[in-house]
């Protein structure tokens, strides 16, 4: 057999660091178009590799001038937009470590990450979280400058305006693939305070290269310069970050959807490579089905027939004349679906393994071939993927080259080989890192099924991975999809629960209330909890909700787009869900501490409002004063019911 043909993946494996994705392409051809950004008039404008390299260098010089050293952590709290990308590559260019968090992160989560990673500088979007980080500067002397994202990047550039670009070049020349690139804090439904996953440059590049190799036969069919994608996955999470790196490896021009979302911009952008989540494709399908239903039952029947035809066409091993004729009868319907995705999609890459086999086949039959991809932060984003012409609908394909997959008796996927993480932030003795392996196999925490031909189907979570394990004294929701949370407390002290009842001590009411509040906060929908006991005939609680999860709840439960957050917070089904959590948590406390009434707020308590300390802890007295009417109302309602 001859040598395998050269691919961008082969090139990426030889790079020393992620910043080479910028500078080597710019050196090779400075006119290569690498990004598309929204201009002042809302039109997409293209950015060349040479222009982007210049922007990255100017920002990198400013970081050096600000005192950012090799290996220093740089905290970036931001949404996914072009400034995030420019700042990330500037951080990597000076051999520093990126610590990204989404703009929607809670104050508690941000404070936890700052304390755990001890960044040298920070760039924060939004006044609420900017105040949180600035409030920690006195506590953490390592934390130097804290810039607001909206105006701070210009200040960073001005700091390094006098410096020569060689200050950045020297750092880049000494970079190695083993250098730490990012400390990633995965979003989890288990606990809001997690350990960061430490990933190297080499792991991210290798994982991206393996993924590009699998996709390249399809992507290479596009004419030079035509490969483009509109990315809507959050860059602070592993699917978004891995997608960004893979697109840059494959020379796919990237646009970021930002706050407007994928489906509102995809028709104008017209991507040829669609990088999406299962929810995006499900939404497109539901919109088209809803349109058919609103027109009449005849139209809905036609749509259902079109779906059956598309599914059968995709699953037919041979596309004979009869299958092609049957499909052509509904091509007008399929064209509408393709136009909703921009009309030019040559390949759809779907992250997460949650797309059903029927929808997978439907989009394939429509003319939008879908390839599903799956991985975890610990596997640098991906360990299994399909490919056009080598896929089974509903599966996430086969494991990538150089990797092995073993499934335990409990159904949990264990991976060996390929790109894996270096450890966890805050795990100084490496105990948690070692505990995530089982005789050399990395335990992923996900249940999978593998058929005789090696096709992998993701079933769900069987347990939290180590990164989502709680800190001492917090609780773990073992089955977050179930309304009633199964929660267990970590044992206190070295002896833990096994020390015996004789060594246990009586816990105070304050400790029990704190545990109750932590138990509720373990749910992804709930941000903050304040239980009111003193001076009241019974315990009650104020509960705030996570704004982005509130929007997701609205979408999943079919509520209209026009529904305001305050209306969602008062929705009967949502309140019933919160009530189930309260009832379950009440089992862990004595009768006199059981919460009998609660009030749900759509907006979180903030530092700016004076209700949260810079550390992220609630100012209890201030909250009680600010919401005295709501609290009094809880007891009035209860008395009236009695």
Give a verbal description of the structure:
40% of the residues lie in helices and 19% in strands. By secondary structure, the protein is of the alpha/beta class. The chain has 3 domains: 18-175, 3-Layer(aba) Sandwich (Rossmann fold), CATH 3.40.50.12780; 248-467, ANL, N-terminal domain (Rossmann fold), CATH 3.40.50.12780; 505-641, GMP Synthetase, Chain A, domain 3 (2-Layer Sandwich). Strands 11-12-13-14-15 form a 5-stranded mixed β-sheet, sandwiched between helices. A hairpin with a 5-residue loop joins β1 and β2. The longest helix has 19 residues, at 201-219. The chain is globular. Residues 468-505 have low confidence and may be disordered.
Q: What's the CATH topology name of the largest domain? A: Rossmann fold
What class, by secondary structure content?
alpha/beta
The overall pLDDT, averaged over residues, is: 84
Spans of at least 5 consecutive residues whose pLDDT stays below 50 are 468-505
CATH class of the largest domain: Alpha Beta
Structural domain tally: 3
**Total beta strand runs:** 26
Q: Tell me, what's the shape?
A: globular
- Tell me the span between the first and last alpha carbons: 83 Å
Sequence-ordered SSE layout with sheet pairings:
Layout: H1 8-12, H2 20-28, E1 33-38, E2 44-48, H3 49-65, E3 73-77, H4 82-93, E4 97-101, H5 107-117, E5 121-124, H6 127-134, E6 146-148, H7 149-159, H8 166-173, E7 180-184, E8 197-200, H9 201-219, E9 228-231, H10 238-249, E10 253-256, H11 262-269, E11 273-276, H12 278-295, H13 297-315, H14 321-328, H15 331-340, E12 347-351, H16 357-366, E13 370-374, E14 384-385, E15 398-399, E16 403-407, E17 412-417, E18 423-424, H17 431-435, E19 437-438, E20 441-450, E21 456-461, E22 475-477, E23 487-489, H18 509-521, E24 526-532, E25 539-545, H19 547-556, H20 565-569, H21 572-586, E26 595-601, H22 620-626, H23 628-641
Helix pairs in contact: 2-3, 3-4, 3-7, 5-6, 9-10, 12-13, 13-14, 13-16
């Amino acid at each position: 057999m001859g040598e395998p043909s050269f691919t961008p993946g082969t090139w990426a494996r030889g790079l020393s660091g992620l910043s080479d994705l910028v500078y080597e392409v710019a050196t090779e051809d400075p006119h290569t178009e690498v990004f598309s950004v929204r201009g002042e008039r809302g039109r997409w404008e293209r950015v060349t590799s040479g222009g982007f390299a210049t922007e990255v260098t100017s920002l990198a010089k400013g970081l050096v001038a600000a005192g950012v050293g090799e290996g220093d952590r740089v905290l970036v709290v931001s949404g996914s937009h072009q400034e995030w990308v420019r700042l990330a590559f500037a951080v990597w260019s000076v051999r520093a470590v990126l610590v990204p968090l989404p703009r929607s992160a809670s104050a508690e989560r941000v404070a936890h990450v700052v304390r755990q990673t001890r960044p040298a500088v920070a760039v924060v979007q939004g006044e609420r979280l900017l105040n949180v980080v600035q409030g920690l500067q006195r506590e953490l002397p390592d934390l130097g400058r804290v810039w607001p994202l909206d105006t701070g990047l210009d200040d960073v550039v001005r700091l390094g305006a006098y410096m020569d670009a060689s200050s950045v070049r020297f750092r880049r020349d000494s970079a190695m693939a083993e250098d730490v690139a990012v400390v990633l804090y995965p979003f989890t439904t288990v606990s809001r305070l997690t350990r960061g996953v430490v990933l190297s440059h080499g792991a991210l590049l290798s994982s991206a290269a393996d993924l590009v190799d699998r996709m390249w036969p399809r992507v290479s069919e596009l004419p030079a310069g035509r490969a483009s994608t509109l990315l809507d996955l959050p860059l602070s999470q592993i699917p978004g970050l891995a997608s960004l790196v893979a697109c840059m490896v494959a020379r796919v021009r990237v646009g970021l959807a930002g706050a407007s979302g994928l489906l509102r911009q995809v028709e104008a952008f017209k991507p040829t490579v669609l990088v999406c989540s299962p929810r995006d494709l499900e939404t497109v399908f539901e919109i088209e089905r809803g349109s058919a239903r609103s027109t009449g039952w005849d139209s809905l029947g036609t749509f259902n027939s079109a779906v059956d035809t598309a599914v059968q066409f995709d699953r037919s091993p041979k596309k004979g004349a009869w299958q092609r004729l049957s499909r052509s009868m509904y091509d007008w319907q399929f064209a509408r679906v393709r136009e909703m995705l921009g009309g030019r999609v040559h390949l759809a890459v779907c992250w997460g393994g949650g797309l059903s086999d029927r929808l997978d086949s439907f989009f394939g039959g429509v003319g939008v071939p879908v390839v599903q991809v799956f991985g975890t932060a610990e596997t640098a984003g991906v360990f299994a993927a399909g490919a056009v012409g080598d896929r089974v609908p509903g599966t996430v394909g086969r494991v990538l080259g150089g990797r092995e997959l073993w499934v335990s008796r409990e159904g949990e996927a264990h991976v060996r080989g390929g790109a894996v993480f270096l450890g966890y932030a805050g795990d100084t003795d490496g105990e948690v890192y070692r505990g995530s392996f089982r005789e050399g196999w990395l335990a992923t925490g996900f249940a999978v099924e593998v058929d005789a031909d090696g096709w992998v189907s993701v079933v769900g979570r069987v347990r939290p991975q180590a990164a989502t394990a709680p800190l001492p004294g917090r609780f773990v929701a073992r089955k977050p999809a179930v309304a009633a949370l199964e929660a267990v407390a970590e044992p206190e002290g070295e002896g833990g629960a096994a020390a015996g009842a004789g060594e246990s001590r009586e816990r105070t009411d304050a400790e029990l209330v704190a545990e109750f509040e932590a138990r509720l906060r373990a749910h992804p929908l709930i941000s903050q909890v304040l239980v009111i006991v003193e001076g009241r005939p019974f315990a009650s609680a104020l509960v705030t909700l996570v704004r982005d999860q509130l929007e997701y709840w609205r979408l999943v439960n079919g509520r209209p787009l026009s529904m305001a957050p305050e209306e969602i917070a008062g929705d009967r089904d949502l309140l019933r869900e919160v009530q189930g959590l309260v009832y379950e948590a009440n089992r862990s406390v004595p009768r006199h501490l059981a919460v009998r009434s609660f009030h749900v707020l759509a907006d979180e308590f903030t530092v700016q409002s004076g209700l949260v300390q810079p550390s992220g802890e609630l100012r209890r007295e201030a909250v009680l004063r600010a919401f005295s009417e709501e609290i009094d109302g809880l007891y009035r309602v209860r008395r009236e019911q009695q």
